[in-house]
Amino acid sequence: MQASSVVLLQGDSRVAQALVNCLCASFHSVHAVRSLGELRASIAKHRAKVVVLDIETASLSEVEKLSHDFPGVPIVCTHRLADEEMWTAALSAGAVDICPSSDTGAILTAALRNVAMSQGYAA
Questions:
Q1: CB 51 within 8 A of CB 73
Q2: 35 closest CA partner among 59, 55, 57
Q3: Mean pLDDT by 10 residues, the chain (123 residues)
Q4: pTM to 2 decimal places
Q5: Suppose 54 and one of 10, 40, 41, 70 were both cysteines; which one would form an S-S bond, judging by CB atoms 3.0 to 4.6 Å apart?
Q6: What pairs with residue 50 in β-bridges?
Q7: β-strands 5-9, 97-100: how paired?
């Protein structure tokens, strides 16, 4: 895989650290941030190829804004609880996938799959 970076914003620091550890093996760089402002700045600064976003830290309108402001950058949302209605709303807002925050394997798979798909579309 070519050099690529991921930016993540998670409300739970333990989940964030677990995701950083998991994602580091597959991405050139992983940048954990603590706020939406830092997220936006880090996406631009590091030319992120994917964003992993805790849906509890951002409103659906923010997911929609991120999707609009950073076209081609897949947003994988995470959430503590399985809630089909909220998950459907996140996908409608521009997320490409949504996974339980405790399932680091699913998050990694979603991130890798969507980076590959976005790079395929760009080629």
A1: yes
A2: 57
A3: 82 94 94 96 96 94 96 94 86 95 93 82 49
A4: 0.91
A5: 10
A6: 6
A7: unpaired
Distance separating alpha carbons of residues 25 and 43, to the nearest angstrom: 20
The structure tokens listed for 120 are: 């395929």
Return d(Cα 4, Cα 13) in angstroms, integer: 23
43: tokens are 């996406």
* Cα separation values, 38 from 34, 58, 69, Å: 7, 13, 15
**Segment holding 33, helix H or strand E:** strand 29-33
Give all domains of the chain, ordered by start, each with its CATH number: 5-122 (3.40.50.2300)
Two tokens at 25?
A: 């093996």
Cα distances from 56 to residues 46, 79, 90, 109, 114, in angstroms, run: 24, 7, 11, 21, 21
Tokens representing 98? Answer: 């949504």
> Burial of 81 by CB count in 10 Å (0-12 exposed, 13-18 middle, 19+ buried)?
exposed
Q: Contact 52/10 with Cβ under 8 angstroms?
A: yes
Provide the token pair at 51.
Answer: 């964003």
